[in-house]
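## tool: complex_structure
## caller: assistant
## args:
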Amino acid sequence: MSVFPVILSQEKFIHRDSLKFPLEERALQFGDGIYEVIRIYNGTYYLFDEHIDRLFRSTEAIKIKLSHSKEEIKNLLLELLERNNMAENGKVYMQISRGSAPRDHVFPTNVEPNIYAYVQAVPRNLVTLKNGVGVITHRDIRWENCYIKSLNLLPNVMAKQEAKEQGCYEAILHKDGVVTECSSSNVYLVKDGKIYTHPTTRNILHGCVRMAIERFVTDLNIPLIEEPFMLDDIANADELFLSSSTSEITPIITVDGSPVKDGMPGEITRKLQAAYEKDANIIENLIANA
Amino acid sequence: MSVFPVILSQEKFIHRDSLKFPLEERALQFGDGIYEVIRIYNGTYYLFDEHIDRLFRSTEAIKIKLSHSKEEIKNLLLELLERNNMAENGKVYMQISRGSAPRDHVFPTNVEPNIYAYVQAVPRNLVTLKNGVGVITHRDIRWENCYIKSLNLLPNVMAKQEAKEQGCYEAILHKDGVVTECSSSNVYLVKDGKIYTHPTTRNILHGCVRMAIERFVTDLNIPLIEEPFMLDDIANADELFLSSSTSEITPIITVDGSPVKDGMPGEITRKLQAAYEKDANIIENLIANA
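## result:
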């Protein structure tokens, strides 16, 4: 657990127990902010530039004006790693809100964004990476701008909880049968050697691990088709998998209790997992050596 | 400004400057909570039961388990008024989140909800109540469960800001031309002596002032038709108005720069404003005496 969260708006590092949020913080009252979760392997940020670029796309989309450059944010996050002696596997959570001001929907003026980040040790989930996970399906009732990694996560929370209560790992979200993504990950279907996934419209998050997968498939010569698939397509899928910074590339082996194909992680999923471990310079690369 | 916010989960009153939110508060990271704003006239809560009932409907909808009864919450809010010597016009903001726990979409277990509230003096906005306001129209891109008064308010914030930047007071939201509500108020159209407004489906908030209006129209013998109207209907409307706890019943006199009818507050709107002042026991009832 992080000893020193960084409060970037105050340009200083303080102990997490000393962090104090004001009563009228716009993240607290409106969810008026954005965030990133970046994976750390052996003390190094993975897909660092992808996350920082998306962080800035998100702040721009909701018109938060940052006074820090990308380089400055990166340097502070690197200093955060050092101050916490983070040399293992983990992740950083970073949040930027519009700031603190008397409650009013309208943007406050002359207010600096509130920025904070903290790191924590998180081991890779080798059991789910190896064995795969079960998921449920759930209607996608979220707002239209899910490409923004915003703090408005209540529908995601409710869907993930529903999955948990049904003994599952994730919820595949769909709009009238069209699969968009999962509650906190992207989702992919494999059929006849091709990978299908929803195009990066406003309705889904363009995942950083998805960006990495877009590179991997070129090297592996696997077609990645950015077309949405339907719930009905799952019954005839060869493989299904999901991706996120926390879940990496995780096989999906059951959907609403029914097995995907033979209920075992598929060949293309395994190839992508191996490519991921290589790309992330993961030392204990259990998938690649499996 | 409130001297003593109340932290109900800790059953105590503390000074607002001493309030400390933990790093991993679910309102802060997920918007995982709900809120109410209750109007205070001359030191008395208006539509108190309506707000408390809705507060409990909202917590139930997102499965937050409160250990307080409605009576207990009401008594604490009444004590809050006393401790702040609030005898004037104002409002209370009350927020309930699922609690504080290491960040995970799934509900934490064995965690108490975080509850806080604070009062502040807010004069009635007599200028807008008398003269009316201009509004813009804006696509309703929010999630499907807007009947829950949740902390996921980013789309509302963005729409209200857009209105502000265009010199307007509010944004009328619509789905494919069907008017739902405004960014932080309900909206009504008057035509041939009848009031039209969106039915209280999952897509809009059932406003407490709307509940009061539902009572007023019975006494006034004005038909209130709970059918959605279209953006296209506005050009031929006799009157347009909005309602919320902060805005009371406010005439809308322009929409996207075009006047509603003759650009003056209408007769039925005025009757409802007078009924409001009577119902709320407002002493300086400027509308009723206008």
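## assistant note: The radius of gyration of chain A is 19 Å. Chain A touches chain B at residues 5, 16, 19-23, 25, 27-32, 35, 62-63, 93, 95, 103, 105-107, 116, 118, 141-145, 150-158, 160-161, 164, 183-184 (CB under 8 Å). Handing back to user.
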